[in-house]
Design goal:
Blueprint: E1 2-13, E2 16-27, E3 31-35, H1 42-49, E4 57-62, E5 68-71, H2 83-87, H3 91-108, H4 111-114, H5 117-136, H6 142-152, H7 169-182, E6 187-191, H8 199-210, E7 215-219, H9 223-229, E8 232-236, E9 248-252, H10 255-296, H11 300-315, E10 341-352, E11 355-366, E12 370-374, H12 381-389, E13 396-401, E14 407-410, H13 423-430, H14 435-443, H15 449-452, H16 461-475, E15 479-483, H17 491-502, E16 507-511, H18 515-521, E17 524-529, E18 532-536
Parallel strand pairs: 3-7, 3-8, 5-6, 6-7, 12-16, 12-17, 14-15, 15-16
Antiparallel strand pairs: 1-2, 1-4, 8-9, 10-11, 10-13, 17-18
Helix pairs in contact: 3-5, 6-7, 10-11, 13-14, 13-16
């Protein structure tokens, strides 16, 4: 059963057209992964589906009484509320249903309604439908479901009294999700729900979505999660990138199936394109020969035959040349060889007052290794990496950087960027170059002239991530310390990073919860547990 149908949606942001002719059909059991490069309009489409934004053209039809739950990319929660108070705001949905029922009851008593039998019957029907929705929604058991969903999203009873402002980004996502799911939406719209979640949080999210009884549309760049959670992929492309092609295409299957099927389809299209081009070339040559002969033999039949061939070419349904490789960031790490011992931690400890975060950490990283540093959020991974870069001093022990080792650091919170500068200023800080060369270089990281001149503070998360990558490439470090590098990167950019690491001659230590990425790049895994580092057998 179709519960929501978007038809030929068009949307502008100022003078910039974001969506054009986008259509999407959602059934009651749909599991759809919405993917596409940053800036393609995925969040805009999601807000339109949720009814929080309106299209400039086109329409969205929803089943009558459809309960839609929407998880924004960055949920905003008040600092002075508690976890339980925020979860119990699920009651607001039922209050709206009660208000609707009371409003319909008032309308029944209005003379213009009860004196008109057709109008009265219409209001009675609406009232009965609203009562049925209220009864079906399980309002009487709401508080019990709220507690159930809090536990399901990883909150203990001791967490209920925590201020919501003290939660991590991942915990805020899960709290907002618990509140949504307590109301049992028919359609769940999730905008990058996995951002800021650690491995345990992602597995929890996967279990909740896979077992959810309603329809789900999820925006995510996590390819592993898309393999587990969805049954179809809706790919939204940047407007104008492929003229003549629909902006949104839907494929059956999970992400890996989509990627394989799309590649096969593109290769088939390439073969058909080349075959058609050879046929067009053959016909064009035949037409030219006929026109040449007409100059020597004065007979109109040669001109007519040439014109017929040219019309035949015009009538052909032309096959578009496929883009086998989408435009990606031009990432290519270069490095000079350093010493064999790249990085060594000996009995490293870190405490804040009486609170011990790291205790007796030992780690040796040697030339050419690809090391994944994993562990739960709050385990101390980013703190340990800051000590490797010299931004934090250990309370005890020693951090040794090897001979001729130059560190390139990608920071999770993007603190390596100066928010008051422009991207052009940032890259020229790293490497002396002419301004025109800086613009050209940034163009290879998908910054147009306008974006390259804006302050870094105004850039999106994905743009800041690409700028950090550009600086890393210019720095030419032979040890890359990467803290959650795939956060905010779209899938083509993640793939470019994976390929660049494959071709890199230096050493890499990466913190990440992106399992698909780690499977591609990591050759050794160490895990933070109880303030120490342990080797993980693969």
């Amino acid at each position: 059963m179709i519960i929501c149908n978007a038809i030929d949606l068009t949307k502008h942001h100022g003078a910039n057209r974001v969506l054009d002719g986008v259509s999407l059909e959602i059934k009651n059991d749909s599991r759809i992964g919405l993917i596409g490069p940053n800036g393609a309009g995925k969040s805009t489409l999601m807000r339109i589906l949720a009814g929080l934004d309106t299209p400039d053209d086109g329409d969205v039809t929803r089943r009558r009484g459809l309960n839609v739950g929407y998880l924004p990319q960055e949920p905003q929660l008040p600092d002075d509320s508690t976890v339980l108070d925020e979860a119990l705001k699920a009651r607001d949905y039922y209050q709206r249903l009660q208000d609707e029922i009371l409003e319909l009851e008032v309308r029944m008593g209005e003379p213009e309604v009860y004196e008109n039998s057709d109008e009265l019957q219409s209001v009675i029907d609406e009232h009965e439908a609203a009562l049925q929705r209220f009864e079906d929604s399980g309002a009487l058991n709401l508080d019990g479901r709220v507690l159930e969903m809090l536990h399901a999203t990883g909150f203990s009873v001791d967490d209920f009294s925590l201020p919501s402002g003290s939660l991590s980004g991942g915990q805020k996502k899960l709290l907002f999700l618990a509140r949504l799911m307590a109301t049992q939406p028919d359609l769940l719209l999730l905008d990058e729900p996995d951002n800021h979640l650690d491995e345990d949080g992602k597995r929890l999210l996967e279990r909740l979505v896979v077992s959810y009884p309603g329809a789900v549309v999820v925006i995510s760049h996590d390819r592993y999660m898309l393999d587990v959670m969805v049954e179809s992929i809706a790919e939204l492309e940047v407007l104008g990138q492929h003229p003549g092609r629909d902006q949104l295409s839907v494929f059956s299957g999970n992400y890996s199936e989509f990627a394989a099927d799309k590649r096969a389809a593109l290769l088939q299209q390439q073969a058909s394109f080349e075959l058609q081009q050879r046929e067009i070339t053959r016909l064009q040559k035949a037409a030219r020969r006929l026109r040449d002969w007409s100059q020597y033999v004065d007979h109109p039949k040669f001109i007519r035959r040439a014109q017929n061939i040219e019309k035949r070419i015009e009538r052909m349904d032309k096959i578009e040349r496929p883009i086998l490789e989408p435009r990606r960031i031009g990432l290519d790490f270069g490095a000079e060889r350093g010493g064999f011992k790249v990085l060594e931690l000996k009995s490293v400890g870190k405490r804040f007052g009486k609170h011990v975060v790291l205790d007796d950490v030992d780690l040796l990283v040697t030339h050419g290794e690809r090391v994944a540093l994993t562990g739960a959020n709050g385990a101390g991974k980013s703190l340990l990496m800051k000590m490797m870069t010299g931004r934090e001093e250990p309370t005890s022990g020693e951090v040794r950087v090897g001979a001729r080792i130059s560190i390139g650091h990608y920071a999770q919170e993007q603190e390596t960027l100066d928010l008051d500068l422009t991207p052009v200023d940032e890259v020229r800080k790293v490497k002396d170059m002419h301004e025109s060369d800086a613009y050209a270089f940034l163009g290879s990281f998908l910054f147009d002239f306008r974006k390259a001149r804006r302050r870094v503070s105004t850039l999106s998360g994905g743009e800041k991530a690409r700028l950090q990558m550009a600086k890393l490439m210019l720095a030419e470090g032979n040890l890359l310390l990467l803290d959650e590098p795939t956060n905010n990167l779209d899938i083509p950019s993640c793939e470019a990073l994976e390929d660049a690491i494959d071709d890199y001659d230096g050493t890499v230590l990466v913190i990440s919860h992106d399992r698909y990425f780690l499977e591609r790049v990591a050759r050794r895994t160490v895990r933070m547990e109880n303030g120490s580092v342990v080797e993980v057998e693969v």
